[in-house]
Amino acid sequence: MKRIVVMNPKGGSGKTTIAINLASYFASRQHTPVLMDFDPQGSSIRWVRKRQPTQAPIHAIAAFEKDSRTTRAFQLRVPDKSSHVIVDTPAAIESREMPDITRDADKILVPVLPSDIDIHACSRCIRDLLLVAKIRREDDRIGVIANRVRRNTLTYQTLIRFLQTLGIPIVATIRDSQNYVRAAELGIGVHEMKSYIAQADVEQWEPLIEWLDKPSTTHTPALSTPPAIASV
Question: How far apart, in whole angstroms, are the C-alpha atoms of residue 50 and residue 186?
């Protein structure tokens, strides 16, 4: 089982879009993904609830909810045969929380938008992952996603130049497409849309999937019960 954490303390960076489309991809390939939603907004959970019984199943855990009748470990339990756990994290995570959030993560995805504010937030996030969470660059566990980009614009070129200075791989470049909005409204991902509609979007996920399939250099497999993330 692989654990993939999608995080960026900056709100609106596209964490949920990445998380639900990853879950959709794995489900559509006959895997058994778990989507764990730590964001109090509950967007990932609402998306799962929109899915139809005929669609590939995705197990959802509303990790942002607290249930006094059960232990936290029981609430966050993952089915034994799960293939992937995708963690959708909330905004405004503090650096001191990052070691717990990223513990046992096989891969950590940091989506970033092409704007000065988002570039600064991404820089701070990467710094905290390296210095506070103690993730080593050479472990190849951190990947940046350039999200909602429009090529041949100055902001896109600025973003790419910045990302190249980090020493962290750019594992995907996702275009600004309305297909993500339409898919989210229907409880599906772009990989479940008709190919003639979403082919250009689907192709942009190929390098990301290849990177996720690569084993981390020194990381050990994820535990069946991920650590809790504090509500923010």
Answer: 7
What is the reported pTM? 0.89
**Chain position carrying tokens 């963690």:** 87
Half-sphere exposure of 172 (CA within 13 A, CB side): 26
Contact present, 54 and 80 (Cβ < 8 Å)? no
**CB of 219 closer than 8 Å to CB of 139:** yes
Helices (H), 166-205: 178-186, 195-204
Q: pLDDT by residue (tens digit) across 24-43? A: 999 999 999 999 999 999 99
For the chain, helix, strand, coil in percent to 5 are: 40, 15, 40
Residue 101 is encoded by which pair of tokens? 């959030």
Spatial contact of 225 and 78, defined as CB atoms under 8 Å apart = yes
What Rg, from alpha-carbon coordinates, does the chain have? 17
CATH number at residue 45: 3.40.50.300
Domain that holds residue 48: 2-212
Tokens matching residue 97: 């929380």
Please choose, from the candidates 201, 192, 212, 143, the residue with its C-alpha nearest in 3D space to the C-alpha of residue 174: 201
Does any domain span residue 228? no
pLDDT in tens, 108-148: 999 999 888 998 899 999 999 999 999 999 999 999 999 99
Task: State the Cα torsion 64-67-73-79 to the nearest 10°.
Answer: -80
